Amino acid sequence: MKKKTTKYNPDFFDHAKKVIGKKRYNKVMQESKILAHEIRLKMVREAIGKNQTEVKGLTQPEVSKIEARKDMKISTLAKYAKGLGMRVQINLIYEDDEENEGIAIYG
User: Fold this and answer.
1) Mean pLDDT value of segment 64-73
2) H-helix or E-strand containing 105?
3) How far apart are CA 53 and CA 74, in angstroms?
4) Could you tell me which of 55, 46, 56, 62 has the C-alpha nearest to residue 11?
5) Angle, CA of 98, 100 and 106, to the nearest 5°
6) Using CA atoms, how far apart are residues 12 and 48, in angstroms rounded to an integer?
7) pLDDT confidence of 2, banded at 50, 70, 90?
8) Which InterPro entries did the record assign (predicted)?
């Protein structure tokens, strides 16, 4: 009997969707959005399947430095996001607002 082999899938999220099913995957992603208060830029870049050299408008050393920073200008973050094909959204949220509603600022 021939053993079934599967091709390695380097995209974690694509693989997870296939393993646990689309419905369950979507539920997990919604829950993770609620739970994720902080995420590193490197994790965002990797989640969309790009390496440091694929960030448009920035060199690989620039991307590396940005991802290592703990604090940066909003303009730097906006340039990084644009290079990923994204944009920055900052939410101003009242401290006593438990539903996390507030004012969105786009950049």
Assistant:
1) 91
2) strand 102-106
3) 22
4) 46
5) 160
6) 10
7) low
8) Lambda_DNA-bd_dom_sf
Q: Please choose, from the candidates 53, 107, 60, 57, the residue with its C-alpha nearest in 3D space to the C-alpha of residue 83.
A: 57
From residue 18, how far is each of 8, 9, 22, 24, 48 by CA, in Å? 13, 10, 7, 10, 17
- The more confident residue out of 51 and 101 is 51
Of 45, 51, 105, nearest to 81 by C-alpha is: 45
Distance between start and end Cα atoms, the chain: 58
Q: How would you write 38-102 as a 3-class SS string?
A: CCCHHHHHHHCCCCHHHCCCCCHHHHHHHHHCCCCCHHHHHHHHHHCCCCCEEEEECCCCCCCCE
User: Side chain identity at 71, as an amino acid letter?
Assistant: D
Q: How confident is the model at residue 80 (pLDDT cuts 50, 70, 90)?
A: very high
Measured between alpha carbons, how far is 84 from 66 in angstroms, rounded to an integer? Answer: 13
pLDDT classification of 1: cutoffs 50, 70, 90: low
